[in-house]
Amino acid sequence: MKIKNRPTSVTIQKGQQFPLTIKRLGINGEGVGYFKKQVVFVPGALPGEEVVVQAENIQPNYAEAVIKKIRKKSPHRVKPPCIYYDRCGGCQLQHLQYEQQLAAKRDIVIQALERHTNLEVDALDIRPTIGMDDPWHYRNKSQFQLGNEKQQVIAGLYGANSHKLVPIHSCMVQHPLTDKITQTVKQVLEDFHIPIYHERKRTGIVRTIVVRAGVQTNHVQVVLITKAEELPRKELIAAEIMKRAPEVKSVMQNINGSKTSLIFGDKTVLLKGEEVIQETLGDLSFELSARAFFQLNPVQTVKLYDEVKKAAGLTGSEKIVDAYCGVGTIGLWLAKDAAEIRGMDVIEESIRDAKKNAEKHGIKNATYVTGKAETWMPKWAKEGWRPDVVVVDPPRTGCDRAFLKTIKKVKPKRFVYVSCNPSTLAKDIQFLSSLYKVEYIQPVDMFPHTAHVECCALLIKK
User: Fold this and answer.
1) Domain span at 306
2) pTM over 0.85
3) Is residue 420 flagged as an active site residue?
4) Which residues are annotated as a binding site for S-adenosyl-L-methionine?
5) Mind listing the pLDDT tens digit for each residue in 211-233?
6) N or C: which end of the chain has fewer CB within 10 A?
7) Catalytic residue of the set 325, 399, 420, 456
């Protein structure tokens, strides 16, 4: 009689407790171990630790578990200094020594390349992560959701994997100015008895307070995200915010009536002050409108953009495309060392800001257009204009496939990829690998104490 092969993996049961040795950190900063050949993800566990865990969420390919006991502690474990750390979900790695966070982020990049490419990852030049001297209070923009608790307005973040709003009075990774202004705006809304949006009931008006601080200029912009255009006494509210917080130079209203996790809607109106605030990076100054993309950590942005400049290998004669250009920060950083910059973005406000920024700095060799790179680059190629270098800084979803196909057709000598998501970076590298080789990847820590890692990757045409 023939005996059927038994499955080699044992299915973990919900609620089951078992010992686990943590092998590495996963892409979301959680500990990863293996129990009876099944992958187990454990938030808060560190590589080398021996823990007893309880299975909470069982999936066909993995299980998620929580720590019940740490039997053997990592020598790199530290006490998180933030009082909200275990509830907020905004940071994932405060319990890990900072130097080790930098090593873990390089490892996350390696894991992504191993998972999503068929390259010889061991042979690649993946450099040590560039960190911060002071890895606190670095974020220049906050987006705090609003709610009501005991008839008071609260502002904070939703806890990890939950819809419970955690009120936050001061965040250790936010620039102190953003914290201060958020609390001021929250108080003004409470004093004016403005109805706060209720996500489940879809009642109320104001959903979110967005605060952006110009770290070098001390200028602040406040954006009130509302369910509808109607906002009682909006001019008075804006005037009161500016009276109580003189740093605020711009108060905007953005209307988002959709049932969505996206913060911004399509329409933005000025309530008081200027449409934009000023910020400087190095010797460049920028005008920032409410929806314009701008890097959240200005100290590390200078380091990142210097890495982009190194990777571009400029001699003064290069034609550059700055795709997904936002307000033109990267292109303007490179402009004086290049022959010509052409940038594009689908957000019209960003292109308006980019044009103003170029004009203000007297940069004559930069052109900015609204639209997609995959539309403009083939058009320019037909006209006989081909870039030597393409620089791209896409959203977390990575580059649009049509854009990557355009790169393969236009064939720039150098492709400099600034990535905020190692998984999509790896997938895009794999797609281009028939034509481009990875010269090196330089991780940069833009968001200390979180699992996020930014990279500057240089790809060279074979």
Assistant:
1) 121-131+297-461
2) yes
3) yes
4) 295, 324, 345, 393
5) 999 999 999 999 999 999 999 99
6) N
7) 420
